[in-house]
Amino acid sequence: MGLSRKPGFLSAEQMQKVHDTSVYILKNKGVVFRSQKAREALAAHGAVTEGEIVFFPETMIEDCLHKVPSSFTMCALDPEKAVKIGGDLIIHPAGGETFLNKTDGGRYNTTTIKQFADLQKIYQACDNINMTGYQPLSPQDVPIKTRGLHCLYETMRYTDKPWLAPMDYVSGADKRRELGMYEIVFGKDWVRDHYLTWSIVTPESPLVYSEFSCESIIEFADFHQPVALVSAPMSGITGPVFLLGTVVLANAETLAGLCLAQCIHPGVPVLPSASLTYGNLQKATWECASPESALMLGAAVQMYKEFYHLPARAQTGVTSSKCVDYQAGYETMQSLLLTALMDVDVTSQSAGSLDNLMTISFEKTVIDDEVISRVRRIIRGLDTEEERYGLDVIMDVAHGDNFLIHDSTLDHFMESWQVSISDWNNYETWSELQHKDLEARARKRVEEILREEKPVLDQGTLKELENYIGQYE
């Protein structure tokens, strides 16, 4: 048994207060849904509508919460790499970044589909990144109409971990097209019975679901694919200036989206995501890596996990730093370790993200792979089996002697965690290394990964996917 990883921010009474306040808002202020189909579905299950505003009875909210599974499995091309969402720490790629960090300083203002593909190759090579795809870059050299399909193609081409579809769409119908690519690879009947991706849905804080967001929930829930609800208010800007008030707002928005998903397809998995950020009004910025953001994330994850008993996703492993430096390291570890200790199930932005989610870095991605590995080791905790108390060993070694050549040491010393990119050499050995700097070692590792071309799909399937994309161009 390992150590508990739940430090907790809210008491049981405070979590109940957050829930009760959220329900009051949903019942008395309501949420705008800019989709007639969504409003009709909600009204058919007990909600009250006035124009575009939907009001939720408490009994409806409770009923919908009870229908959501506490865990589900995301399948992969390699069945051994399928992941359970709910109970394990699952890392998925960054998403939404605009720029790519240059290895010699600065950043690329436009990115290419080749750079997107290269990033997928890096995700495939990083053992601690469990999922691939998503949208860490938005390539500018492919048509915007089919950009998401091109990105998903490169993900399918180079990775065999679970594939997250990109977000680069303007309608629910666009999202439906990506599901067609999964059907080509896995078969239509198989896709209907398995979870392969999820739809990222972000309400417009405060308390608005756009037509696109509604369509996204409806399309994926109707297809029985999970829905990830990413409420992302900024304190003092699109949420209250009070941190707890912003948590309440995000919670209310999440419950509203959850209800819509259950009205469309009862029992469809819903993955609530803690993506709250601190609005730094003193500098007219928003900060994803501030202690205030970490506190809001922790409280939101606690609500999802402990109060609602749902799987939880969080925007974590983030930094405001513009380059791969000391600040990037400690901010990334601060947010990643804290949410991991809060028992988060899925993390986003956890590998390679810089500049408040605006820039992605190849080098930081491989560095973060080790950071994630460190966090996994910490949350695994101490082994508390009887042997590990060491009584027999301590009794066996003489006073003032050492344990270096004891049988237990020789049997178990290889079990310890080791670095993959950091340096643990002594000074003399380090001084003789060709690449003394961490970022330089990371750059060398990236070059090694990208040197190899390893498609994971056969040429026939790749050609079928290309033809599928072509029909939409």
Structural summary, described in words:
- The protein has 473 residues and is α/β, with parallel strands linked by helices.
- Among the domains are: 69-242 and 266-380, Alpha-Beta Barrel (TIM Barrel); 386-415, no CATH class.
- Helix content is 44%, strand content 13%.
- It has a six-stranded parallel beta sheet with strand order 6-19-18-15-13-11. Strands 2-3-1-12 form a four-stranded mixed beta sheet.
- A hairpin with a 4-residue loop joins β20 (353-354) and β21.
Task: List its salient traits.
473 residues, alpha/beta, TIM Barrel, four-stranded mixed β-sheet, 17 helices, 21 strands, disordered N terminus
Give the helices and strands, then pairings.
Elements: H1 12-28, E1 31-33, H2 36-44, E2 48-50, E3 53-55, H3 58-67, E4 72-74, E5 83-85, E6 90-91, E7 99-101, E8 107-108, H4 113-125, E9 132-133, H5 147-158, E10 163-164, H6 172-186, H7 188-192, E11 199-201, E12 208-209, H8 211-222, E13 227-231, E14 234-235, H9 243-264, E15 270-274, E16 277-280, E17 285-287, H10 291-307, E18 313-315, H11 326-341, E19 346-348, E20 353-354, E21 359-360, H12 362-380, H13 391-396, H14 407-412, H15 427-431, H16 438-450, H17 459-471
Helix pairs in contact: 1-9, 2-9, 3-9, 4-5, 5-17, 6-8, 6-17, 8-9, 9-10, 10-11, 11-12, 12-16
State the helix count: 17
Mean pLDDT: 93
Unreliable spans: 1-5
CATH topology of the domain at 69-242 and 266-380: TIM Barrel
**Strand coverage percent:** 5-15%
Structural class: alpha/beta
Oligomer: single chain
Report the sheet with the most strands, covering strand number, pairing sense and barrel closure.
Answer: 6 strands, parallel
How many individual β-strands? Answer: 21
Shape: globular
Assign the CATH class of the domain at 69-242 and 266-380: Alpha Beta
The CATH level-2 architecture of the domain at 69-242 and 266-380 is identified as: Alpha-Beta Barrel
